[in-house]
Specification:
92 residues, mainly beta, 4-stranded antiparallel β-sheet, flat
Length: 92
C-alpha cells in the first residue's frame, strides 16, 4: 500500500551462510578468581548452511521464521540437527 504504516508485506526465500570460524567461551571462578577461556576450533560444524525463510507483517511489525534445510553438523560427526528460529522485529 501507499501508507507505509498500514502496508502488508510477505516474503519467502532462502538464506545461505558460510561459517568463517567457531569458538567456545567459558567463564568460571576458581579460588575467588574470575577466569575466561576462549577456544577456537572446527567442532565439525558444516561450513555452508542453507535456511528456508518466511517473513510476514504489517507496517513496522514483522514476524519471521527460519528453518535449516542442511544439517548443522557434518555427516557422521554429530547429531542430525536442523536449527529453527522464530521471532518478531520492529522496524522504525
Amino acid at each position: 500500500g501507499k501508507d507505509p504504516d498500514k502496508s502488508f508485506h510477505f516474503s519467502v526465500g532462502a538464506v545461505v551462510s558460510y561459517r568463517i570460524g567457531s569458538r567456545v567461551k567459558q567463564k568460571y571462578s576458581v579460588d575467588d578468581q574470575n577466569r575466561k577461556d576462549i577456544n577456537r576450533g572446527h567442532y565439525h560444524i558444516s561450513p555452508f548452511l542453507v535456511d528456508a525463510s518466511v517473513r510476514m507483517g504489517v507496517g513496522s511489525f514483522t514476524a519471521f521464521a527460519n528453518y535449516a534445510l542442511t544439517p548443522l553438523f557434518e555427516n557422521n560427526k554429530g547429531p542430525e540437527y536442523y536449527p529453527f528460529s522464530a521471532g518478531i522485529s520492529l522496524n522504525f
